[in-house]
Write a structure and sequence with these properties.
There is one protein chain. With 416 residues, the chain is mostly helical. It folds into two domains: 1-200, Growth Hormone, Chain: A (Up-down Bundle); 206-416, Growth Hormone, Chain: A (Up-down Bundle), CATH 1.20.1250.20. The chain contains 16 helices and no strands. It is globular and about 50 Å long. It starts with a helix and ends in a 9-residue tail after the last helix.
Length: 416
């Protein structure tokens, strides 16, 4: 009976002071990082007038994802996770300070890309550690509640951060980097006071062999492989986020007399707002009855919305289409994350989650590179249109390559 209040309490995780500290700190730095991302895209495009350079931003941030995510997952099981997070925060604070100085001095573009690479590397270093820290802080009965709130945190900060970033950039671009540095500094102070119960750690061992075991599992589990790869290629082809500075500056007229920088912040926030709306809707509905079919339809809707966005010259229609990309993408994300957890043995979940993070995380940045590369040769509009069409072709192909995905039913623990 003592577990009933915690089990049915929608705010159970917030009864744990350590989780509150971690949640608020994470919310703060996600907002700061999102604001800094707006500044990066705006500054690069304003100084170079090149969509290709926007694509290179994505490539620069994708390389650490591909190189460091799997080793970072291994390190998170070996060393003190709070210490790993502290190292990450110090590193990203220093890179934000470096970007602030670069922006003030109008430094060389290669130097900016070096700073972006270092910033992304520090973020990758602590990603698995941050996720793995939650079970150490929160009782098992409240763990699901904590994970839901942590997922919502990312979407909310992705709405608020770009809007703040657009407003700051419209005032002074360097201030956005300073704002990001301040948020990470505050989180460092909050992290120092975080009390983490001592837990069991893995012993250092054969890192490469252990990492390869997780990769082999994904390869042999065709349902997981189909789900992860579908989402990866859809984001890789259909993502238009990295080209938004082009649309905000050159192709769309901002409403209400807003500066283009402010319009960019609104455009960047629209997909996250759609994700938040879908997350709330799904939270109040029973499990999806035909999850695989729902995922395929959601990815197809993502592609259609991307195509309409590319054709639109109305700011508000463009906002609605970006909202719908986030709205539909959230369905795909819920199905993917839940399926991976349901179909993966507990002893492999960390490594399989790392593989999942590489597939999806890298596709965001590589998708930015792909969009910028295509835009360089055929223009931003054709880049977005071809990406949306490519997404629809991927859905059609995957529905045939992975017939089990079409037939996959309820997202429940019993469906294993």
């Amino acid at each position: 009976m003592s577990n009933l209040p915690l089990k049915h309490d929608p705010y159970a995780a917030f009864r744990v002071p350590g989780f509150v500290r971690l949640f608020l700190g994470g919310l703060l730095i996600h907002i700061g990082t999102a604001a800094q991302s707006v500044a990066i895209g705006w500054e690069i495009y304003s100084r170079t007038d090149s969509a290709m350079m926007l694509g290179l931003v994505g490539l620069t941030q994708a390389l650490p994802m591909m190189l460091l995510t799997l080793p970072a997952g291994y390190l998170a099981d070996i060393y003190d996770r709070r210490r790993i997070m502290a190292i990450r925060l110090v590193g990203t604070t220093l890179t934000s300070v470096g970007l602030f100085g670069f922006s003030l001095a109008q430094g060389s573009i290669p130097l900016m890309f070096l700073l972006l690479f270092m910033d992304a590397a520090f973020h990758r270093l602590a990603g698995p550690a941050g996720s793995a820290l939650i079970p150490q802080l929160v009782p098992t009965a409240a763990l699901e509640n904590a994970i839901k709130w942590r997922t919502s945190l990312f979407h909310v900060s992705s709405v608020v951060g770009p809007a703040i970033g657009g407003a700051i950039v419209a005032w002074r671009t360097p201030a956005a980097y300073a704002f990001s540095a301040i948020t990470t500094t505050v989180f460092i102070i909050m992290l120092l006071g975080l009390q983490v119960p001592e837990g069991r750690r893995s012993r250092p061992g054969r890192m490469v062999a252990q990492v390869l075991e997780g990769m082999r599992f994904v390869w042999h589990q065709k349902l997981i492989l189909g789900t992860i790869s579908l989402d990866m290629f859809a984001v890789l082809l259909g993502g238009a986020v990295y080209l938004l500075p082009v649309f905000a500056k050159d192709l769309l007229e901002a409403p209400w007399g807003l500066a283009p920088e402010q319009a960019l912040g609104l455009l960047r926030a629209a997909p996250a707002a759609g994700s938040v709306a879908m997350a709330v809707l799904l939270a109040h509905r029973p499990p999806l009855q035909r999850a695989g079919r729902s995922m395929l339809l959601a990815v197809a809707a993502f592609g259609v919305a991307t195509i309409i966005f590319g054709l639109s010259r109305s700011f508000w229609l463009s906002m609605v289409m970006l909202f719908l990309t986030g709205f539909s993408d959230n369905i795909s994300m819920v199905v993917r994350h839940t399926l991976v957890q349901l179909r993966t043995p507990n002893e492999l979940r960390g490594r399989v989650s790392a593989v999942n993070s590489i597939f999806i995380g890298a596709s965001n940045e590589l998708g930015g590179f792909e969009s910028g590369l295509v835009a360089h040769f055929v223009g931003p509009v054709m880049s977005v249109l071809s990406g949306g069409i490519g997404t629809l072709l991927v859905v059609a192909t995957w529905s045939r390559l992975f017939p089990g995905l079409r037939r996959f039913g309820r997202l429940t623990v019993n469906d294993q």
